[in-house]
Amino acid sequence: MPTAPTLELSGFVLGAPDARALAAFYRRLLGWQVRDDQPEWVVLRGPAGGPTLAFQAEERFEPPVWPADGEHQQMMMHLDIRVDDLEAAVAHAVDCGARVADFQPQDHVRVCLDPAGHPFCLYVE
Q1: Which residues, listed in sequence order, are joined to residue 34 by a DSSP beta bridge?
Q2: DSSP bridge pairs for 54
Q3: What is the pLDDT of residues 85-106, one digit of tens each?
């Protein structure tokens, strides 16, 4: 069997109708810095390094539906964001432009939707 190449997960990419607008939301939410800023492609990096979060403009973007209903665009992935104070984190997310989803499946998790409609979870351990 051949030796496998070295693979390293370097980042996550979210599609959006406006890459810069969605990147600005996550920059405010997470406090990350812009590493690359182009009209159709923006990359954020956290202060400790690690994987990046990038945003790619998609002309035909359709926001996913949460919870999934089988008739509309399905969620392909979501971000889990650990927080130390769930109530304060939700208030911060809403202040940044998120909205709290109507359906909440767990007590220690809050599902929010970013301005483009991507679900993300704020949670405490």
Answers
A1: 44
A2: 13, 43
A3: 999 999 999 999 999 999 999 9
Q: Which tokens sit at 53?
A: 């979060």
d(CA 3, CA 77): 30
Q: What CATH architecture does domain 64-125 belong to? A: Roll (3.10)
Residue type for 80, please? D
Q: Which fold has domain 10-61?
A: 3.30.720
| CB environment 3-16: b (16+ within 10 A), e (fewer) | eeeeeeeeeeebbb
Model pLDDT, residue 41: 98
SS3 86: helix
Question: How many CB atoms within 10 Å of residue 80?
Answer: 9
